[in-house]
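Technical annex B. To support the medicinal chemistry partners, we prepared a structural model of the target in complex with magnesium ion, based solely on the information shown next.
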Amino acid sequence: MSQRLLLPRSPSSALLPAIPFTSTSSSAKPTYLFVPFPSSSKPLSVYSAAAALPPSDNGPSIALAAATSNLHDPSIEVDAVTETELRENGFRSTRRTKVVCTIGPNTCSSEQLEALASGGMNVARINMCHGSREWHRRVIERVRRLNEEKGYAVAIMMDTEGSEIHMGDLGGAPSAKAEDSEVWTFTVRAFDSPLPEYTTNVNYEGFAEDVKVGDELLVDGGMVRFEVIEKIGPDVKCRCTDPGLLLPRANLTFWRNGSLVREHNAMLPTISSKDWLDIDFGIAEGVDFIAISFVKSAEVIKHLKSYIAARSRDTDIAVIAKIESIDSLRNLEEIIRASDGAMVARGDLGAQIPLEHVPSAQQKIVQRCRQLNKPVIVASQLLESMIEYPTPTRAEVADVSEAVRQRADALMLSGESAMGQYPEKALAVLRSVSIRIERWWRDEKHYEPMELPPIGFSFSDSISEEICISAAKMANNLGVDALFVYTKSGHMASLLSRCRPDCPIFAFTSTPSVRRRLNLQWGLIPFRLSFSDDMDSNLNKTFSLLKARGMIKSGDLVIAVSDMLQSIQVMNVP
Ligand SMILES: Nc1ncnc2c1ncn2[C@@H]1O[C@H](COP(=O)(O)OP(=O)(O)O)[C@@H](O)[C@H]1O
Ligand SMILES: C=C(OP(=O)(O)O)C(=O)O
Ligand SMILES: [K+]
Ligand SMILES: [Mg+2]
């Protein structure tokens, strides 16, 4: 059975009255629901009932680059984990929430990276605050090799250091303990030899000028606290008031009369000169995402996007705005609009606004991103205790569940995967909690429908949005097994993802970089597939390729949309 809804691609095409359709197949009774037909499109008769046709010879054009090393057919590419999951558990059980893992000393070898990829890592994040460019280059190379050799589509996100104030690297020590009432010196002076006792560097020249005696100094958003007791030239003496562990390059904020102090440091550029060099590095390496720390306004995002566009004509690097400052909350709407996605960077955000404000800020950012069709990542401390322990706390599981329930696109591991003792276990917890909560919410239909405002600029954009909203609604109402989307730029796939339908979305794209980028978005299973403008042959090829690999079976109900031919088709897999 195949039914379809065709819509015009351009505003110029006139709407025609509904045209009855006669199927070429004897069994199927496809009906055109509504046919406003573009004058440039092919005649109706070309659109025969795809599902009713016998599977065609796939030919060399849909080149299946393989998922695993034991290749079946070189024309469709999906990662081995997804393939196995689809084959063994069917459509319904696939995880919709994506996972970003920060790569650090405990996850940087090829074996460790492969363990994360096979455990479900969708995006590998490198934090330019730590490690050398050479170190990061090697990580990128290893991820690339994994993708090429094992068929994964792990995307790479480079995160800039930003103009944050942070401590030095503790003279190479992994950590230092600050005890109650100890007096420590925070200084911008450089030391050649080992650091004197109870001394740490600060990376910001204006530090001693900006702080005042009596200020409260927070390390890592309050994990350790000091009070400023004396200033001597470049040295600031501070007494520890809340003891704790100091980690290398830990972030520093200072507070006066209960408010965050924003002195000269507020004038620091969002993208520092070191960040620009890192960005050049990221462009040269062809990373998929660049995340910008401490974004204050939309301008910096727009500037960076045009900088990237001018320098990387053939790659498309998405810019993710990290929401982690008061300014970014104030300018949230315009920042999200200017970016290709956002991150709720709760680590620093929790150091800049009262902790009890973080959950509502998270909910607001996640909602707004979804409405504006930008992928959103919830980051920091999701499973913090798993840096040291193999089991999460109940509170951490509840926190992960809440982000999944909010239907964020992705969850992120930081220290848990970068330098924790149990990176794979932490990833497994994110995976199992996501799957469980997603299924629970689907079964119980707990979620409230979200108002999805129009976001397109052209009439054609509006049509795409309406098609996706209708297709997702039909998919839920009819209980279909999967949505298929054929997309060149990935836009149509993200519009479907925005609707957060009950069933998974198979996104077919011919471009490997688009496939990697789609890997960040909720509910999308990105495949690489070369396809033509002829939907019927695309569908037939896809069906036979996926059937041959056991990923779908005859009788499965599918709704297909595409951005070449703006249409909705409902059909059973033949
Ligand atoms: N490339 C790296 N090299 C060494 N250590 C790293 C690296 N990336 C991350 N880490 C470690 O993992 C911790 C958590 O990572 P992340 O949250 O990204 O950084 P930060 O704590 O600076 O915000 C860092 O504090 C650091 O100790
Ligand atoms: C993700 C964050 O940024 P970073 O780890 O770079 O400080 C955060 O602050 O939560
Ligand atoms: K960073
Ligand atoms: Mg941060």
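Notes passed to the chemistry partners:
DSSP finds 17 helices and 25 strands in the chain.
Residues 423-444 form the longest helix (22 residues).
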